[in-house]
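Tutorial handout. Part one gives the primary structure; part two gives the three-dimensional structure as tokens.
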Amino acid sequence: MNPAAGPVLQLRDVHAPPVPGLWPPAPGWWVLAGLLLVLLAWAAMTLTRRYRLQRRRRRILQELESVGQSFDPERAPRFLMDVSTLLRRLAIDRYSRRRVASLTGRAWLEFLDETGGEGRFVQGEGEALAEGPYQNLTKLEPEPLLALARAWIEKNSGA
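Part two.
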């Protein structure tokens, strides 16, 4: 048998497979999309928390300024109670209520020093917060105490 005498083979050229479609994506794209969603959620929560902390800090600082502007030497105990209340509100927000709410007197001042007072509450202008609300202080200078409270608020407001 002669191969040339037989029927001509009908051979076709090699064809490439069809281009894969865009859907469904490969598993790697699903993983990447999941990671991107987690990253976006984390960024949104972080930015929201930072915004709330800054807003709270501004509000407390405005209240402190209002307390300072309304200072009257005749009502010094009320002024000291207001400053202490503002500091306690922020401390309860920042630290646990269980740790802060029961503190009074020297223990309260020591807590304020531990958390950013640098010793100026126990042995400085912050001393007036412990006993001042219960005494008649006629020669109280509000500015040093307001500056100390402002510095403590800025350290502890998380901004």
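Part three, for discussion. The first helix runs from residue 27 to 69. The helical segments are 27-69, 76-94, 97-100, 105-117, 128-131, 142-156.
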